[in-house]
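Service request form, structural biology core

Requester: graduate student, group of Dr. S.
Request type: structure prediction, single chain
Budget code: on file
Notes: please return the result as structure tokens.

Sequence provided:
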Amino acid sequence: MVDLIAASESELLSAVEGRSVELIDGRIVVLQLAIAPRIENELNAYERIVAFLGDPLVVTLLLLIGMVGIATELFFAPGSFVPGVAGALALLLFFLGVGTLLPAEAALAFVVLAVLLVILELFLPTGGVLGAGAALALAFAIGIGVGQGSTDLTIGRLLVIVLAVIGVIALLLGAFLAYFATRYWAPNKPPEAESADST
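Core staff response, request fulfilled:
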């Protein structure tokens, strides 16, 4: 049942002014909206990004990128790593966009993905691809966490936070990989050098 139709917000408020409504507890309240303060809550940067991810065209593209990336990694170019990482990130963004994953669940999934990629980076010759994917996944997780806790987040601030996180993670990962490589992947000494050292 439709009580009234209004072409604008002001017309709607004028139309319902003075109406009596019954609350759940049985009280009758007369609407006095002309003197009531108006509070407008605009979407922050995080909410706009999530709304963008929920666009039907965007979620379709994310699903296609995810499926094509995973399929390419598994069947057409195994060991290239870039399609697989891009596909995994796109699928998580897809699930966030369609609402299958709540923001907290999506953040946790990105953290788990980042940990898995870092572990694989230590044992596979990926040229840093998996490490970069881990940095992006962790940046997404932190971006979701910051966006959930901030009501005045702007695109600029969110971009600065994400870039800072990626930079710090890249530096830490690079330092760790350098230490790991020098300690465990250093080439063995030739026999001549070993015999010379023993004498």
